[in-house]
Amino acid sequence: MTTSRGPYAKSARVRAAAVEAAAELFGTAGYRGATFKDVATKIGMTAAGLTYYFPDKDALLAAVLDERDRPAVAEEAALASSGTRADITERVMRILSENIAQPGLAELHCVLSAEATSAEHPAHEHFQDRYRKARDLLTDTFEAAVARGEIRSSVPPKTLATLLLSVMDGVQLQWLLDPEEVDMPATVRTFISDLLAPPEAP
Amino acid sequence: MTTSRGPYAKSARVRAAAVEAAAELFGTAGYRGATFKDVATKIGMTAAGLTYYFPDKDALLAAVLDERDRPAVAEEAALASSGTRADITERVMRILSENIAQPGLAELHCVLSAEATSAEHPAHEHFQDRYRKARDLLTDTFEAAVARGEIRSSVPPKTLATLLLSVMDGVQLQWLLDPEEVDMPATVRTFISDLLAPPEAP
């Protein structure tokens, strides 16, 4: 329950503004390029003032990541229970459209996930967990689609899940490096049509 | 022609040692984590002394990247002219084995290529160029294999090239984050078997 007044409401507003500012700055300048003070300045605070809400840049990072992931995780959970081939394709194409519209956030994901491969990175567990959950949800989705006879079963569902996430990340890397040369939606769509193909006609 | 003595030979030796040390340090501490001075210290020089051979860390980075890529580019050129499905599979599996044996270098590639999506990064053009060349060579390879009837032609060769590179990068990211959970060779091999499948029997 959020009340619209009082110290709790102010705290929630400041936190939300700081997370939005951090997401924008991390998306343009990168996590390492943006400072804690930059985030504070953007919302008209001092760095000391912002530490009342977030102790440091890592805490901002964690909040940005949670905020970004919340809608995606809910949608993926829904997909897992009833996702048809068309649903999966539509969901993936929508993610790509969002990334094309906000290349700064796409780059943020690309850089943070790569940096986070290091066990010491503050987002290491976040990304490990995020990919595990995404693989598990997609595996369930593909298992259900195979069981319904919608996609052929020559490739194990868990491998399909790992591959779909890999293709999305890998094509995005090439697209970020060279947007004129790489047609991200067409490439990913081809992968989905081919690898998530319906069973051969009997 | 390299002579074994004289100032030129010493210069070549120092350069080679510095590039090796930089590759190792960038692979363990990351490009941003390792300093120019760390590289100098590792080969028993001062930072000022090393500037005689390399003006700065970016120059070391460029040399490391060139050094790493040289054998790969030559092999890929050979693949493009005569690569059969078996050759392509073997070459890809060999790259994966090398990366499993040297996770530090795999992580270096992962982090540098992601950082380099930013147009201001010193390796931006290097990675843009590297991916263009890799796509072109693999496209030629796949075109030739389709023409010989070795792989089916439902997916355009350029798309296959982009997808294969994407799968290698994307699966590697998940493997670096979670080596216990992600079987990199098996996943990539499944992709190759399925997407580079021979034509259907007539």
Automatic annotation (TrEMBL), chains A, B:
Pfam families referenced in this protein's UniProt entry, alphabetically: TetR_C_6, TetR_N
UniProt xrefs under InterPro entries: BetI_C (IPR039538), Homeodomain-like_sf (IPR009057), HTH-type_TetR-like_transc_reg (IPR050109), HTH_TetR (IPR001647), Tet_transcr_reg_TetR-rel_C_sf (IPR036271)
Record keywords: DNA-binding, Repressor, Transcription, Transcription regulation
Residue ranges annotated for the HTH tetR-type domain, each copy included: 12-72
Superkingdom as given in the UniProt entry: Bacteria
DNA-binding interval(s): 35-54
Name the UniProt record assigns to this protein: TetR/AcrR family transcriptional regulator
